[in-house]
Specification:
By secondary structure, the chain is an all-alpha fold. The protein has 7 helices and no strands. Helices cover 77% and strands 0% of the residues. 16% of the residues are buried.
Length: 145
């Protein structure tokens, strides 16, 4: 944040200030120092909020505000863990399904319970949910053949 202030980069400075404030608020609410996973969770929520704002402003015909939110999003992304690739996600999903013994769509919750901590902050939860659902359906249809 200090570097952004020295460089007079208001967008990055403001994005980092909001992230620090969210971390401090979460730590105060938790009443204990946040673990790395908890910090990543807070930053993930901040990034999700920015993405939703970009979509809302773009759909509302406000490209100027959407661009501002996108710039804040771009300022926060370097502080997040590297995102998982498609092959890595598929491997983790397959391992979680095998580990839980999931055989039907009702088992989605068990798979997500195992998978969520492994991908937290490194992949979008909604994307993971849809990929697990698709993989379970694929395995069920393959088993019926």
């Amino acid at each position: 944040m200090t570097a952004a202030m020295r460089e007079h980069d208001e967008v990055r400075r403001d994005a980092l200030r909001m992230a620090v404030a969210a971390l401090q608020r979460a730590e105060k609410d938790a009443r204990h120092p946040l673990s790395s996973d908890e910090e990543i969770g807070v930053l993930t929520r901040e990034i999700r909020t920015r993405r939703e704002s970009v979509d809302a402003f773009a759909n509302g015909g406000r490209p100027d505000l959407a661009a501002g939110e996108q710039a804040k999003l771009d300022a926060l992304n370097p502080y997040m863990p590297a995102q998982l690739g498609d092959d890595e996600i598929d491997a983790l999903i397959g391992a979680a399904i095998d580990e839980t013994g999931a055989v039907e769509p009702r088992d989605l919750g068990r798979v997500m319970k195992v998978l969520a901590p492994r991908v937290r902050g490194r992949a979008d939860g909604r994307q993971i949910h849809s990929l697990v659902t698709r993989e379970l359906a694929r395995r069920i249809s393959a088993a019926r053949r």
